[in-house]
Amino acid sequence: MHLKIEKIVPGGWGLAKMNGKVIFVPYVLPNEIVKAKIFLEKKDYAFAEIIEIISPSPQRISPICPHFGVCGGCDYQHIPYDLQVKIKENLFKDEIVRQLGKGIIDVVKKIIPATNPFFYRNRIHLKIKRERHKVHLGFFKKNTHELIPLEKCFLAIPAINEILIMLKTILKTYAAIANQIKTIEIFFSPNEEKGIIILHTLIEINKKYLKNMAEKLIDSLPALKDVLIKHSAFTYPRSLFDKGYTESGLFFKINNFKVICYPGVFFQVNTDQNKKLLNIVAELANLSGNEKILELYAGMGNLSLLLASKANKLIGLDNNKLAVRNANYNAQLNKVRAFFKKIDVDKGIKDFLKDETLFDCLVLDPPRQGCLNALKQTLNIIKPKKIIYVSCHPATLARDLRFLSHIGYKIKYIQPIDMFPQTHHIEAVAMAVSS
């Protein structure tokens, strides 16, 4: 069937219509005419894949990755970067306006583009597949579990691609374990110029056998600091060389702070854009030195250290025990007044606030699903003058800001940031103040 693409919609899909049914098509631009085939059909909509581009947009460019359009890692390599950020900005604004009304548009700032549109990720998660005596590493095809083997990833920093090449070579000798490995995570710090590998396995594999493979990797890669294993028998990754988390962790310089990120703990994948994010958060907080801050979903302290250095005290809460341990280590390392505690933020915040009720500023950095329940419980007890919200999902950000608006907070600032070039994903920072 032939389809004319009307527009780009959230998720990076192109929207077309056929006989009154909406059809979503990837890797297209508005006004293009494509020949497509439906691969998933529902009552009112369907998803299709491109067979041929019949009438390409004059704005279409050739992707630099030979796997683009097959590998599911990127959405926008066929689009010039300046147009990518315009598309992201417009989709972001549309979602914010849809949920908060046209009056909000004045506080939505122009998107901050990335310094490096390619080779920016400090972490990748590779899928693995054994095929006879060969081992393939790569990513799944979009919306499938079909593995697309890769020689390199154009989003990953060059050092990760160097590790990837050697990893593929050495895995050939250890092909027998490939069926037991679900995912291979490569994490690298450009500040320390060191990296780690985490093998996510389906079952517990003979440690001696794995350690032998890990030794060969480390001997071949001077930049490789440790190899760890993670499976269902234990909650967090464990070093094959029995190193502690601080020893295995990677050092990053964030503004004037030195931080360690423990293996398996969340850290922003775009190191350069993360610095811009932190500076915006600090500017919005506009701290005098007397404030007491509550931070929910604090993780390893990415936002916390800069804020704590300018405040009287910061208390950070997170669901992840290892992240809390990591954050407390970073606070001590940088000598800031920040203290972190493990609680289930969505369920346990009410009990925590029985003893702590006086906070000037609330900082939030929740996962994609947002934090509406935690917000309701928190703001039923404390009334901070200022709320700063970092989000990776426009729809849940808009939903939670709408709640804040309904209970009397005024949304003063919303800043989109392109943290993830070549993909449809976007980061944002918002600020609300009490009326």
Automatic annotation (TrEMBL):
Known EC number: 2.1.1.190
Keyword terms, alphabetized: Methyltransferase, S-adenosyl-L-methionine, Transferase
Domain TRAM: 1-52
Keyword DNA-binding: no
Active-site residues (renumbered): C392 (nucleophile), C392
GO BP annotations listed: rRNA base methylation
Transmembrane region(s): none
Coiled coil: none
Family stated for the protein in its record: Belongs to the class I-like SAM-binding methyltransferase superfamily. RNA M5U methyltransferase family.
Name listed for the protein in its UniProt record: 23S rRNA (Uracil(1939)-C(5))-methyltransferase RlmD
Organism whose genome encodes this protein: Desulfofervidus auxilii
Gene giving rise to this polypeptide: rlmD
